[in-house]
């Protein structure tokens, strides 16, 4: 049984809430599903399917999105976290802005624009790494021992004279 056939076995499902944003070489869709299980994402040139079981109630969620433009299915990928599933859709034509995610102009009640991650990249010519590459790099470094300790916990601070005195309160 293929991945999408397993996904279509889910009879009573609802669409997952999602936010999307456009970048120079990719479009990102963030499905807001906490504690997702059995995540299936199937990419085709002009659409993609998303399916999972999520939340403490284990609600079955499924979305099929007919895309505004074509994507490269082989280079598109996704990453699951405890709070969401981020999908990266690689554009066939990088540098072409997508005014919307879907082919149809009709509003999907489960889909909104992610203004926190939206960037007017058409005027920005020095974007060295794509967002997904930065995201992947960040995720790969999480949990490693060589990540710097930013809060200074566990460090001993010795002054030159031994004990450092606090100034008196006035």
Profile the largest sheet.
5 strands, mixed
Give the strand order, joined by hyphens, for the main sheet.
6-7-2-1-8
User: What is the approximate shape?
Assistant: extended
Unreliable segments (pLDDT under 50, ≥5 consecutive)? none
Tally of individual helices: 2
Helix content class: 10-25%
Secondary-structure-derived class: mainly beta
- How many E strands? 8
What's the Cα radius of gyration?
22 Å
Order of helices and strands: HEEEEEEEEH
Mean pLDDT: 80
Q: Per DSSP, what share of the residues sits in E-state strands of 2 or more residues? A: 25-35%
C-alpha termini separation: 76 Å
Structure description:
By secondary structure, this protein is mainly β. It has helices at about 5-10, 130-140; strands spanning about 20, 25-30, 35-45, 45-55, 60-65, 75-80, 85-90, 110-115. Strand 4 and strand 5 form a beta hairpin. It is extended. It starts with a helix and ends in a 29-residue tail after the last helix.
Structural descriptors:
170 residues; 5-stranded mixed beta sheet; 3-stranded antiparallel beta sheet; mainly beta; extended; single chain; 28% strand
Concise summary:
The chain is mainly beta and 170 residues long. It is built from two helices and eight strands, in the order H-E-E-E-E-E-E-E-E-H. The protein has helices at 3-8, 131-141, and strands at 18-22, 26-31, 37-43, 47-54, 59-66, 77-80, 85-90, 111-113.
